[in-house]
From TrEMBL:
The lineage of its organism: Bacteria, Bacillati, Actinomycetota, Actinomycetes, Propionibacteriales. It holds the Pfam family MarR_2. This is Transcriptional regulator, MarR family. One of its GO terms (molecular function) is DNA-binding transcription factor activity. One of its GO terms (biological process) is response to stress. It comes from the Bacteria. SUPFAM superfamilies: Winged helix' DNA-binding domain. PROSITE patterns: HTH_MARR_2.
Length: 143
């Protein structure tokens, strides 16, 4: 193979973003947030998510997702609330501390995007964004 597979190149970029965001989050004082906890929290829907959905999206067992949600809850990043659509179920939603760390992560993500745009140029960055967005149609069952 003359050059790396596009999937590998996307993974390298995603790993870079994950590391930069983790460093920014830790520097902001949220050093108790483990990578596993962050990966589950990042999958929370705006109106909350069920543990089973988080497990499926993170590709982990329901038991593992439950343990991670317990850890997130103990650290005050999330809370569990009744699901308005099903009285028997509970939703996991971001708590105020979780929203605060989310703002730190979004700022770092925006900084990375600006750096990449400066490196690639606006036109190439737009093409990259369009191509990756189009690939979601065939790669992301949770889009």
């Amino acid at each position: 193979m003359d050059r790396p597979h596009p999937g590998l190149l996307m993974f390298i970029g995603a790993r870079y973003v994950e590391q930069r965001v983790a460093e920014a989050v830790a520097a902001a004082g949220y050093d108790d947030l483990t990578p596993a906890m962050a990966r589950v929290a990042a999958r929370l829907g705006e109106d909350g998510s069920r543990v089973t959905d988080l497990a499926a999206q993170a590709r982990i067992t329901k038991q593992s997702a439950s343990v991670l949600v317990d850890q997130l809850e103990r650290a005050a990043y999330v809370v569990r609330v009744p699901d308005p659509g099903d009285a028997r179920a509970r939703l996991v939603v971001l708590a105020p501390r979780g929203r605060a760390v989310q703002r730190v992560a979004r700022r770092e993500e925006a900084a990375i995007e600006r750096e990449w745009a400066a490196h690639l140029g606006a036109e190439r960055m737009a093409v990259l964004q369009d191509a990756l967005t189009a690939l979601r149609e065939i790669t992301d069952p949770y889009r």
